[in-house]
What we know:
The structure holds 2 protein chains of 2 kinds.
Chain A: E1 2-9, H1 14-27, E2 31-36, E3 46-54, E4 69-72, E5 92-96, E6 118-121, H2 123-131, H3 137-148, H4 153-163, H5 166-196
Parallel strand pairs in A: 1-4, 4-5, 5-6
Antiparallel strand pairs in A: 1-3, 2-3
Helix pairs in contact in A: 1-4, 2-3, 2-5, 3-4, 3-5, 4-5
Chain B: E1 2-6, H1 7-17, E2 22-25, H2 32-43, E3 51-54, H3 58-70, E4 75-79, H4 81-86, H5 88-96, E5 102-107, H6 121-124, E6 132-135, H7 139-156, E7 160-165, E8 173-177, H8 181-187, H9 214-243, E9 251-254, E10 261-265, H10 269-282, E11 287-292, E12 294-296, H11 300-306, E13 312-317, H12 327-336, E14 342-347, H13 357-368, E15 375-377, H14 382-394, H15 401-420
Parallel strand pairs in B: 2-3, 2-4, 4-5, 5-7, 6-7, 10-11, 10-13, 13-14, 14-15
Antiparallel strand pairs in B: 1-8, 6-12, 9-11
Helix pairs in contact in B: 1-2, 1-7, 3-5, 7-9, 10-13, 11-12, 14-15
Amino acid sequence: MFEVRIHGRGGQGVVTAAEMLSIAAFEDGFYAQAFPSFGSERTGAPVVAFCRLAEREIRSREPIMAPDALIIQDPTLLHQVDVFAGLKKGGFVLINTRNTFAELGLGDALRDWPAGRLCTLAATDLGLKHVGRPLPNVPLLGGFAALSGVIRLESVCKAINDKFSGKVAQGNVAAATAAYALVRAAIETERQEVAHA
Amino acid sequence: MLKQIEGSRAVAEAVALCRPDVICAYPISPQTHIVEGLGEMVKAGAIAPCEFINVESEFAAMSVAIGASAAGARSYTATASQGLLFMVEAVYNASGLGLPIVMTVANRAIGAPINIWNDHSDAVSQRDSGWLQLFAETNQEAADLHIQAFRIAEELSLPVMVCMDGFILTHAYERVDLPTQEMVDAFLPPYAPRQVLDPGEPVTIGTMVGPEAFTEVRYLAHEKQRQALELMPAVAAEFRAAFGRDSGGLVRGYRLDDAETVVIAMGSVLGTLKDTVDELRDAGVNIGVLGVVSFRPFPSAAVRAALQSVRRLVVLEKYFALGSGGVLAADVQMALGKNGGEIYSVIAGLGGRPITKKSLRGLLEMAVRDELVQLTFLDLDRTLVAKQLARERQTRRSGPAAESILRDVHGTMARNEGKKS
């Protein structure tokens, strides 16, 4: 079982992201279950959505309390919500920001993390550039495919075409593809730095 | 076809495959996505001939379903929570008149205090309404139960409520195998009413019945429920033969072999319970699960048969009768009579409180040691309750309990946040 928790704000497509992640996982042959945290969603309010992936039928319906991975769509949540609650040691963390983990003040908390598990991505910029709207959710999924290696970029693109059509779908595919390349490059750079250290 | 799909969408597509003639509904969370999906399909001509009737309330939705069904149309509606309560008078009429309407209830709590989240208060409040009530464990079963529901309803001329956990199922994306139109057509023949308003052969549906025959008419309604107990397993067996999977029926056991302790529940919590029971089995505890699919009629004989030689039962339900206790627990107790062993009643998941494996495991470990009291409220915060009771003892005008408790909860959360930063 691989469990992902997505944090964001109402209007950023948090629930849609979890749903699309489940579709991508389904395309890759997994059993997948996505569900929101069922609040009375309001624009701007903190929102959480969950996605489980497994090789066999997923029966549990409890919220994800010890995630293997976190996707954080809005870095301002770091000061408002305990987004890291229950995160497994060494789990994947992908944050939508132009800053580094050190600049976000997270350097100490995640100091012992193995290489290739933490990444930041300017996903809102990618959304603006490719879709014309400041929506970070889809680029983050592309980035997550690169960071985690659990789902393929092709499957993320299939999920995009399942949810959207026409120009919006094309723009999102471009954003996810660009995000995938950026995260791949960042991980490769980090790997080389570790090798030289 | 296997799809990764939202539960509500899966149900909408399953209902569409049943070729309803009339759909009438009023939107209410968490049912909304189901009727929105069906509305789109009707508008696009994907279900034809079918009329989607927009109504001004749930009372109107059920009234339209009654009229349409009496006129010979296969009729469907869906609701939840306060919406179900608003249509109650018509709900009783639909069953009293023997009209085979199918209705989805996307289970949600009932206010006050207002709460949009899941529990079984809405459907269980209608347990005596004369509708058959089936509870789905997964979205696959929710979709399948609708196909079976039209069959059962029309065979018996009785309405069927398909209950699925609001949000937990309706808003969850998971894989669902949706059958083809040909498969459903082969399983569900066109609606052939047992009674119909026909100007050529006039009848009165809904005549007044006095003391001279009311008991007999009521008894016949009860007899119909008994017939349903025979029909449902047969329909489920036929469904398995045609569609290749188990859905529906009366009850479903899991790891009941040599089980000394059995947990009984309805709906989506069965999945979490099965995972918990697997853990306990690994730890050497002889424990199993019994899922109740048909809550009404209550399958007393099937429950008895499944629970022979069980030492203790834990009945876990997302509802309770205020001032009394567990409703499912009472039904189970009645079914088992004197030979039932210990029965522990547990109330859990009210108003959307998550039911976690951790809490379930702790609960069941206590049950196995016979340390549970007869009525347990899972994860109840006794400090909060005690605080409010103390306030009420102290001050006559102590204010609304719901508001006071919320203030305590949010105060505690704010203090915890303060500690963290």
